[in-house]
Amino acid sequence: MSRLRGADERTVGDAIATGDPLPGTAGFAGEVDGRLVRDVLGRQPLFYEASEPATWSFDRRDLTDPVSLPAGVVRPVDAGADADSPENGGDEPTWTLPNPDPYEDREAGLDAVRAAVTESVESVDSAGLAVAFSGGVDSAVVAAGVPDAPCYVAGFEGSHDVTAAREAAAAMDRDLRVVELTHDDLREAVPELVSVLGRTNPMDLQIVLPLYLVARRAAEDGFDRLAVGQGADELFGGYAKVQKAPEDPRVEADTVRGAAREMVLTLPEQLERDVLALRAAGVEPVAPLLHDRVIEAALPLPGELLVDGETRKVALRETARTLVPASVAAADKKAVQYGTYAARELDRLARRAGFKRRMDDHVEKYVTSLVGDGDDER
């Protein structure tokens, strides 16, 4: 097993010494000089054994009692289970996400984003690569950087994402492969994902199910890497709750820019989920919109380059106009769990199995029943 993923030891060692949170990588985690490390946004998951110092893994299933190393932390490999601070030999918060002043000039912000995004998507190695493609601006920009890579979309018949992906692929003249989901796909995948993630939360599963099933099909077709648009919504203001700040109770910030930063800080938990699911499907994720250069360009964006009236991800869409057809750059997208019907159909399966909506947490109870059935079969 490689001791370090995502960067070389010298780069990470220098980042530890200087406290540089964005040293020019796409994220990293592993062991360096007897210390466990995980980058500032947790783009590479890492786990250690709660009861056995020096035992760690990139896959939580390798451990009996896995603990996720927090993002931005350095921890001695031999730290005891109760060592949770530098004072007692435990976690040392080393990297903090920068909070720069906003660009004073609109064009300067747009130029910075355009340069960073374009370099990131165009520098992706296309060998063994497929693209997870929903037809939205995020995945379209990623796909534009690798014009020869096939695009994959998953969804139930009639779903928004399949329709949008077909329209965008036609506009971009791209090879699109549609993974038509079935109830059997969901029933089969849920126990595997619960094992991989250690989560039974329905929202996490609904989000990751289409991604996992797209990745599994791509792996079956011989691809070992999958390019994804992860990070764009968080970095560029893609959420309705960011658009509606400060009136939306789901965010604490009183500005659009502050709300966007709140979303960026949710990335470590989200990325742990997504990366683990993709690896379990047999591919390594490639997320060019989460490269340090893109993060550095996005963090100083003022509110008006995040949201402008009803338009979200303003700066990213302006960049997209130079890479994809205008119709694709302007396309709206639904959250993946709704755009693919994964949420709707998992709920339907739960109700058919007798877990009615009047029950508390009826979908999670159904998920737990599927995991139990899998245990019984084994």
From TrEMBL:
<dbReference type="GO" id="GO:0006529">
    <property type="term" value="P:asparagine biosynthetic process"/>
</dbReference>
<feature type="region of interest" description="Disordered">
    <location>
        <begin position="1"/>
        <end position="26"/>
    </location>
</feature>
<dbReference type="GO" id="GO:0004066">
    <property type="term" value="F:asparagine synthase (glutamine-hydrolyzing) activity"/>
</dbReference>
<dbReference type="InterPro" id="IPR050795">
    <property type="entry name" value="Asn_Synthetase"/>
</dbReference>
<dbReference type="Pfam" id="PF00733">
    <property type="entry name" value="Asn_synthase"/>
</dbReference>
<dbReference type="InterPro" id="IPR001962">
    <property type="entry name" value="Asn_synthase"/>
</dbReference>
<dbReference type="GO" id="GO:0005524">
    <property type="term" value="F:ATP binding"/>
</dbReference>
<keyword id="KW-0067">ATP-binding</keyword>
<keyword id="KW-0547">Nucleotide-binding</keyword>
<feature type="compositionally biased region" description="Basic and acidic residues">
    <location>
        <begin position="1"/>
        <end position="12"/>
    </location>
</feature>
<dbReference type="GO" id="GO:0005829">
    <property type="term" value="C:cytosol"/>
</dbReference>
<protein>
    <submittedName>
        <fullName>Asparagine synthase (Glutamine-hydrolysing)</fullName>
    </submittedName>
</protein>
<dbReference type="InterPro" id="IPR014729">
    <property type="entry name" value="Rossmann-like_a/b/a_fold"/>
</dbReference>
<feature type="domain" description="Asparagine synthetase">
    <location>
        <begin position="113"/>
        <end position="247"/>
    </location>
</feature>
<feature type="domain" description="Asparagine synthetase">
    <location>
        <begin position="260"/>
        <end position="353"/>
    </location>
</feature>
<feature type="region of interest" description="Disordered">
    <location>
        <begin position="69"/>
        <end position="103"/>
    </location>
</feature>
